Amino acid sequence: MSLDANPLDTWQHAQWERYTQLSAAALITYEYFIQLDHEINLFWKKRWTFGKALFLWSRYYSLCFNIANVFVYLNTHVSLEVCTEFFHWQNTGATIQLITTHVILELRLYAMYQGSRFIFCVLLLLIVGEATAMIVVIGMNRPGTQGHGFHYTTNQPVPGLFICADGDPPGHHWVSYYFTTILVIESCLLCLSLWKSWQHYRSRVGGTIMVLLTRDSVLYFVAMFWTYLLNQVLWLINKITLNELATGFSFVVCAILANRMLINIRLKYYDVMHQDVIDVDIQLERTQRPWEVAGVGVGAGVGVGSGIELESFDDRRGF
User: Fold this and answer.
1) CB 251, CB 97: distance < 8 Å
2) What Rg do the C-alpha atoms of the chain give, in angstroms?
3) Among candidates 319, 253, 256, which has minimal Cα distance to 52?
4) Domain locations in the chain as residue ranges
5) Residue numbers in the chain where pLDDT is lower than 50
6) Distance (Å, rounded) from C-alpha 95 to C-alpha 135?
7) By CB neighbour count within 10 A (0-12 exposed, 13-18 middle, 19+ buried), where does 144 fall?
8) Do 54 and 100 form a contact (C-beta atoms < 8 A)?
9) Which pLDDT belongs to residue 69?
10) pLDDT for res 61
């Protein structure tokens, strides 16, 4: 952990942290309002499922968590006691949000693999391993005011500058290991997603929903990889007024992308279901031919393509 040689740089870095945290909160608030119609039509108006409960929990928890963080960072007269308690809360709250996001990613993978028990065991092992690693890192990295054995916390990095700031003890990189764990888990999830997509591509089975699942998984990983990598680099440098520079965006962007994954799959699902209803109505209006009565014609084939398409989504579970 280090401070800037020039105190003016410390003041500037503190302002950067405040601006990025405020920007992250503004982003998730903006996302909330532009997706509100989808939330109402695709979730609130549908029956309760695990997928619906997970989406609403992720959406409102992440919104409240990130907005609450901003009020602490913008406080220009914050006390040391508040900062210590805040970092306890932030560490725990961030872990809850990340686990929630990864549960969403893993449920999508479970759907892509059509409820495979083997994949379920693999995903369960990953989530338990991730949670254990994060708990160990947080447990070994308790916020405090000592320089050794504690996660260093202060409310005044330089005289006159009040902002909650923290850093790893000299020679330790506990928070960096935290982000390493996230990168490893998400790399595993991406590989599983790409492998299943490759299998579908080779067998020519599946369609737009499988493409959608793959696209969202890749976009999520590309966006979050660089965000988590930036956090890891900042914590390896371990400058106390820069460590939290990118944490706000890492919390916000992962929640936004995970929630959009659930929105996108429901948009596609209900769009295909609506199209199937239209197709059936058109077929019923036509004069039946003898082979259609026998169940061989086009009318008998309605829904076959969508059956393959929708194998990745179960309306009873909501994912």
Assistant:
1) yes
2) 24
3) 319
4) 7-285+297-312
5) 145-148, 276-282, 284, 287-312
6) 8
7) middle
8) yes
9) 96
10) 98
Cβ proximity of 112 and 319 under 8 Å: no
- Phi-psi category of 149—alpha, beta or left, where left has phi over 0 and alpha has psi -120 to 50? left
Q: How far is CA 70 from the centre of its chain?
A: 19
By the 8 A CB rule, do 217 and 193 touch? yes
Task: Give me the amino acid identity at 50.
Answer: F
DSSP element (H, E) containing 226:
helix 208-237
298 and 292 Cβ atoms separated by less than 8 Å: yes
pTM attached to this predicted model: 0.81
Q: Give domain 7-285+297-312's CATH number out of 3.90.550, 1.20.120, 1.10.3470, 1.20.1070.
A: 1.20.1070
Is the CB of residue 207 less than 8 Å from the CB of residue 309?
Answer: yes
DSSP E strands: which ranges in the chain? 143-144, 151-154, 165-167
End-to-end CA distance of the chain: 44
Nearest alpha-carbon partner for 194 in 222, 169, 174, 153? 222
